[in-house]
Write a structure and sequence with these properties.
The protein is an alpha/beta fold and 322 residues long. It is built from 13 helices and 7 strands. It has 3 domains: 118 residues, ATPase, nucleotide binding domain (Nucleotidyltransferase, domain 5), CATH 3.30.420; 63 residues; 99 residues, no CATH class.
């Protein structure tokens, strides 16, 4: 059995084949030509193959779907698990080549434990993929709109102001159009509609936040528990301690920054209108915690609740924890 580890980036992907205890590496372009070249290279070994890559968002999606279409078995693993495996191996090198080799060994580790079947990648619906792309585009447009509004505030030239206002108007129309398309996509897909309804049952989470959580969290089956979800978003606490020095606790910020950003404004709303979040926020403030720390705790709690309703399939119950 060949165990094939793939480390994906925007323009290329590194591949390591683990065969009889030794690695062989190649790099390919992240497009259809690269996919075909990878398939041809692996086929030259004349052995059954098992592929594994990390869940890195849209960059690896096309390759994963291509391999499934070719009848290959592929695992799209939670990065938290592959990183933990690398640490367990005491891996010291951090390069694309070394990462691909580590992923290949992780692939073999799952195979040896008999955990292949339950971890195999299953392509999401076309509606879900559209949601992912459109949410990313919404974020890009929001960022451009903010930049143009900042320029508008400092521009002193009439022509420049006219140009900026024209661009802002066009962006606003695009944002409205994309939101309308997303609503229609969700409406026509039963699974997405059910998941959005579950998420917006949590006070503080609106439609747009629900879309973002689904798009950036991806496949919920990749997570075994809520702790893994908060780690994936980078809003789990990181404690630093050395000898007798004072402990320092902060956000790890090692995770999906887009998901983290999507939770910021909802956390502000939840701290005022969600009784559980409000109690948590005020309790931390009374303990002398800075507002930022209390707000991050609310972000973390919101994500835990989101994971809970998606996993259980039950709407948020404000009286459950009480």
């Amino acid at each position: 059995m060949l165990h094939v580890g793939i480390d994906v980036s925007k323009l290329s992907f590194d591949v390591a084949i683990l065969n009889n205890g030794s690695h062989q590496n190649m790099q390919f372009t992240n497009n259809s030509e690269g996919f075909k070249a990878l398939s041809k290279w692996v086929k030259s070994f004349t052995k059954e193959s098992l592929f594994c890559m990390e869940a890195t968002g849209i960059y690896g999606l096309a390759l994963a779907k291509y391999l499934v279409q070719k009848g290959k078995k592929i695992i799209v693993a939670n990065p938290i698990k592959t990183n933990a495996f690398a640490k367990m191996e005491m891996s010291r090198n951090k390069t694309d080549k070394a990462d691909a080799q580590s992923i290949a060994r992780y692939c073999k580790h799952l195979d040896d434990k008999g955990e292949i079947t339950k971890n195999l990648f299953k392509p999401k619906s076309e509606a879900f993929e559209k949601l992912q792309f459109l949410i990313t585009r919404l974020e890009q447009l929001d960022k451009i709109a903010t930049q143009e509004n900042n320029r508008l505030g400092v521009s002193l030239d009439k022509e420049a102001v006219r140009s900026i206002k024209s661009i802002i108007s066009h962006i606003d129309k695009q944002i409205i159009k994309i939101k309308k398309v997303i609503k229609e996509i969700v409406k026509q897909d039963d699974t997405l509609k059910q998941q959005v309804d579950l998420l917006i049952s949590i006070p503080g989470i609106g439609e747009k936040t629900a879309w973002s959580i689904l798009a950036y969290l991806g496949d919920i089956s990749l997570f075994s528990n809520a702790k893994q979800v908060t780690s994936y978003a980078g809003i789990n606490p990181k404690i630093e301690q050395s000898g007798t020095s004072i402990n320092k606790s902060s956000l790890s910020k090692v995770g999906n920054k887009r998901l983290r950003k999507a939770l910021y404004m909802p956390a502000l709303t939840a701290a005022k209108h969600n009784l559980l979040m409000k109690d948590l926020y005020e309790r931390l403030q009374q303990k002398g915690k800075p507002n930022k720390v209390a707000l991050c705790a609310v972000m973390r709690k919101l994500l835990v609740l989101a994971y809970g309703v998606l996993k259980s399939g039950k709407a948020f119950d404000p009286c459950y924890q009480r």
